[in-house]
Amino acid sequence: MIPLSFGYTPPSTVDDAVRALADAGEDAKVLAGGQSLVPVLRLRLAAPSVLVDLGGIAPLRGVREEGDELVLGAMTRHADVLHDPLVARYAPLLAQATALVADRQTRYLGTVGGSLSHADPAGDLPAVALALDATMEAVGPDGARRIPAADFFVDYLTTALAPGEVLVAIRVPKRDGWGTRYEKFSRVAQSWALVGVAAAVRRDNGGIAEARVALTNMGSTPLRARAVEEALTGVPASADPLTAAAERAAEGTRPPTDVFASAEYRTHLVTVLTRRALAAAGGVHAA
Amino acid sequence: MTVTAEVGAARTRKEDARLIEGRTTWTENITLPGMLHLAILRSPVAHARITHLDTAPALREPGVVAAFCGRDVAEVQGSLPCAWPVTAEMLAPPHPPLAVDEVRHVGEAVAVVVARDRASAQDALAAVEVDYEPLPAVVDLEAALAEGAPLVHADQGSNRAYTWIFDSAQAGTGGDADAALADAEVVIRRRYRQQRLIPAFMEPRSVVVDPTGEQLTVWSSTQIPHILRFFMALILGIPEHKVRVIAPDVGGGFGGKLQVVAEEFIAFLAAQRTGKPVKYTESRSESLMSAHHGRDQIQYAELGARRDGTVTALKVHLLANMGAYLGIITPGTPLLGALMYNGIYKFPAYHFECEGVFTTTVTVDAYRGAGRPEATYLIERLMDELADELHMDPLDLRRRNWIGHGEFPYTTVSGMRYDSGNYEAATDRAMELFGYEELRKEQAARRGSGDRVQLGLGVSTYTEACGWAPSRILGQIRYAGGGWEAATVRVLPTGKVEVVTGTSPHGQGHDTAWSQIAADQLGVAFEDVEVLHGDTRIAPHGWDTYGSRSAAVGAAAVVQACQRVVEKTKPIAAHLLECDVGDVEFSEGTFRVRGTPEGGKTLADCALAVFVAHDLPPGVEPDLDAEAVYDPVNFSFPHGTHLCATEVDTETGRVSIRSYVCVDDVGKVVNPLIVEGQIHGGVAQGIAQALFEEAVYDEDGNLLTGTFVDYTPPTAADLPELVVDRTETPALDHPLGIKGVGETGTIASTPAVVNAVVDALRPYGVHDVPMPCTPERVWRAIREGGKRL
Q1: pLDDT of residue B234
Q2: A-chain residues near B652 (CB < 8 A)
Q3: CATH code for B35-369?
Q4: Measured between CB atoms, does B699 come within 8 Å of chain A?
Q5: Distance CA B14, CA B249 (A)
Q6: How many helices (H) and strands (E) does chain B have?
Q7: Which domains are seen in chain A, by residue range?
Q8: Is B195 on the interface with A (CB under 8 A)?
């Protein structure tokens, strides 16, 4: 279908973008790759007055180091994240999950910032941002601010970004020596996750020193699997404790029932996927 | 002149460059001067009375030229055709292109806006005022037949469209199934669901109607330009010679474009009212909700056998969803498989009964295989269930029951006469390529070790009926159309050849295959043949393309027309060679005096002689062209053995296909590349039914799978490598021995995959997983099976 008519503004700086959003009022929408927004427009499920296209703001693209953090420009395309050496070195979990985002065509147009701002609980990157303790950097009429991932995802398709704010960067703490794994389970290869599990595990002396686990599509936002993390801290890196911890993956979740799967099945599936993600991330066999 | 045999050569397709690059006459690419665009307002509810409908406000929107609804055209829009009243008593409620007083499925066309551009037409739909008074939705097949169920068509008095019965005792083709079942030592009783599928052709439906010329010209993305022309004339009252229908290049159909659709009539009405050319192209969402769906049956079956594995009887009872309205072959679609439920087996008693059921859902009609996938699924699943019950290997059980190679021709319990086949050869080859015995050993080892990933082996030894169809038989089964096919071969003065075919390809590669056939028959180069089709002005006669009929019927007409050209050319060649006609022989493209290898005349030599006509034998017309119409005497019966190995993750329920071998016998092969392409595509669609796809309506009749996100068609990433091989047992009733291949993959593969899934899970007490075998359904089946390793 054809979208309803809308205005289009391609600012070349972040300041221009913020101004354009302010000028356009509440019905404006940020275009950040368009891989989720354009289908929504075509189905006429949204009718923004103006699209503010961030695609022409060059500084928003690319990955750089800043002290202990990686800084990903919000408009960095998935395909670029996928092949970035800094991401591979310090945040391989992000690369693993990005490789599973949608299909190749989408990964060449979609952006990391667009995906996070869209805040689809079935999207792969929000859970990764939670697991990696990322921080979102936003700019609005009142200046810049930073929002921890834990506070960023507010509800289904809703973030902490104010209407006039633009997500400009994602800051990810560098993690050296962590094992990571993103387990995605979907009906067909190129579809959203029924359930996904992002796991990062730091081992120390044959035990698990620290674990961070976040879940895709187990509620209206991505969720940290706190019970699993707590159960893992300090246990030996072996099959039984990992399995026991993974059994707790569904605690505190409220998974959806939809045409793809029931909540009951998701509740089961998340424990299996968590165990597998932990085993891979923790280098434990036969869990 | 040495001519290389073209038939059998793996030619790349001459049509591919233009199709793949899109630089062709897709209907949506057609733009005419002054052309208007229409958009359709569709019902958002499954069943309701229209209490208020006003299109006038839309006329005030920018760019809008016209707007109308069903009431405005009620007297002239006619009723969309159903060409297959399967019984004399069948209920056939009116099928208005635009709903008049009542809507009966989500997506039904309610109002139309015509505007100067597509976006304006789309925008103005919001201005149309409609009020609906809800009526009860009717979605579940079994509930629809229950006493007191709400009716889809209140004036018809029932949701049961018809009951159609075949009984081998009554037909004199076999014994009494009830008696045989009563005597059987073992009876397998099952209920299977053939879920609803969406044909999901790549190119959405599109139609352009131009009323400005002497003839009304209709371009449509259809499989059936000839049938469309006939029905537009018959129903809309346009003199047939004043309608020209063109199916330009068409991007897939799978049966989904074997339909005379509301949108074609609506575009005609819009063109007639405005006097301008009008175009309509559906969106994908519109396509999924309003183009006809396929399958959607409940099958109840009883298979009787002796303890030694000899099958003695089969009884089948179908409930077949018709949707709200009968499409062109809706009632007959489930019956296309009615006489094939016995498969390749020779048991002596068979009873079949089908009830057509109206529901408040979109029309259900042909989808690749149409009736035969359902039949094959049922018998092949039942054979596996029987094998399990009797602790026999499923292939041993099949061998015990199938028609032996030496027994052909064989008339089955359904009265079908199978001309040829070699099930032993195909099965032996498939087992060898598959490594059947080794895989069975691995399966045992995994069961023994309690591996969380279990291995399952699935078998499908299928046959099907291709080559629709002998016209006489179509008449006997009350189908309103014929089944012959036409071809014209024109020899141009320079010796180039035009082949005009009544088939209407939409991806099959007829340009290439027909060129190969004509090249061999006439001894001309492949490149020197042009194939013309899909335009009723160019190819006035034909029954179009569906039901694996084009090669099995259409190509036979091409062969006959070519042979007539040769016969017609002989007197001219004799004249040029100064010999008697009886002494002329034709081989490898050259007419020679018998026994004289030198000094022959080619077709081109003769064509030039005819063109100038300076020196022809007395009484011979200067013309080499010939026509032929071929009406098959029988169906053809491709068969084969498909073997599938699945790995089932018993924790998540995920099914992965590890290997897939198909050995098909489609008779003589014109082009192996095309045949393999058909098998690849067909198997992919069959796997899709087994594992991935299902169109789902909720209890209120809302389509929950209204986008590809929800319908989940698989892509290459979800599908296995296929090992494709063939045996070749020619069809005896076809001039080239061709059987047809368009549907075999779809028909064969679904039971092979589900049999493999169930086989993997037998130790868990699992006897069935409903299709599609999604991870959740597999997981539930394991839990409900109640056994652990």
Answers
A1: 97
A2: 185, 269, 272-273
A3: 3.90.1170.50
A4: no
A5: 13
A6: 22, 28
A7: 7-54 (3.30.43.10), 61-173 (3.30.465.10), 178-282 (3.30.390.50)
A8: no
Interface of chain A toward chain B, CB-CB under 8 angstroms: 1-2, 4-5, 42-43, 103, 185, 187-192, 194, 259-262, 265, 268-269, 272-273
> Could you tell me the mean pLDDT of each successive run of 10 residues in chain B, 789 residues long?
76 94 92 98 98 98 98 98 98 98 98 97 97 98 97 98 98 98 98 98 97 97 98 97 97 97 98 98 97 98 98 98 98 97 98 98 98 98 98 98 98 97 98 98 98 98 95 96 98 98 97 98 97 97 96 97 97 96 94 92 96 95 97 97 98 98 97 97 98 98 96 95 97 95 97 98 98 98 93
Burial class (CB in 10 A: 0-12, 13-18, 19+), B614: exposed
The per-residue pLDDT for A196 is: 98
Q: Among B281, B247, B264, B205, which Cα is nearest to B24's?
A: B247
Angle at B692 (CA atoms; ends B331, A260), nearest 5 degrees: 105
Which residue spans of chain B are classified as CATH 3.90.1170.50?
35-369
User: What is the ipTM score, two decimals?
Assistant: 0.96
Q: Is B720 on the interface with A (CB under 8 A)?
A: no
Contacts of B780 in chain A (CB under 8 A): 265
Put simply, the answer to whether A185 touches B776 (Cβ < 8 Å) is no
**Under an 8 A CB cutoff, do B285 and A1 touch?**
yes
Contacts of B147 (CB under 8 A, 6+ apart): none
Average pLDDT over residues A154-178: 95
Residue type at position B290: S
Whether B775 sits inside 8 A of A187 (CB atoms) is: yes
**How far does the CA of residue B285 sit from the closest CA of chain A (Å)?**
8
Per-residue model confidence (pLDDT) at position A286: 65
**C-beta of residue B97 within 8 angstroms of C-beta of residue B109:** yes
User: Residues with Cβ < 8 Å from B232, sequence gap 6 or more?
Assistant: B218, B238, B243, B245, B260, B264, B265, B268
What is the spatial order of strands in the sheet that B294-305 belongs to? B160-167, B350-358, B311-323, B294-305, B186-197
Q: Determine, for residues A191 and B696 on separate chains, whether the beta-carbon distance falls below 8 Å.
A: no
Mutate to test the interface with B, among A43, A190, A271 (most CBs of B within 10 A): A190
Taking CA–CA distances from A191, the nearest residue in chain B reads B709
Q: What is the pLDDT of residue B2?
A: 41
pLDDT of residue B10: 97
- Chain A residues closer than 8 Å to B648 by CB: none
Q: Which of the residues A41, A184, A187, A275 would you substitute to probe the B interface, choosing the one with the greatest number of B C-beta atoms within 10 Å?
A: A187
Instruction: Say which CATH class B484-630 falls into.
Output: alpha beta
Domain with CATH 3.30.365.10 in chain B: 403-410+418-467+635-785, 484-630
H or E stretch covering A9: strand A7-9
N-terminal to C-terminal alpha carbon distance within chain B: 70
Q: pTM of the predicted model, to two decimals?
A: 0.97
What's domain B403-410+418-467+635-785's architecture?
2-Layer Sandwich (3.30)
Minimum CA–CA partner of A270 in chain B: B652
Q: Is B783 on the interface with A (CB under 8 A)?
A: no
Do B774 and A261 count as a contact with CB atoms less than 8 A apart? yes
pLDDT in tens, A201-218: 999 988 999 999 999 999
Nearest chain A CA: its distance from B689 CA (Å): 13
Residues 6+ apart with CB under 8 A from B361: B46, B105, B106, B139, B196, B293, B321, B323, B324, B697, B701
Tell me the residue length of chain A. Answer: 287
Predicted pLDDT of residue B4? 60
pLDDT digits (tens, 9 = 90+) for A69-89: 999 999 999 999 999 999 999
**Nearest Cα residue to B695 out of B290, B245, B274:** B290
What percentage of chain A carries pLDDT values higher than 70? 99
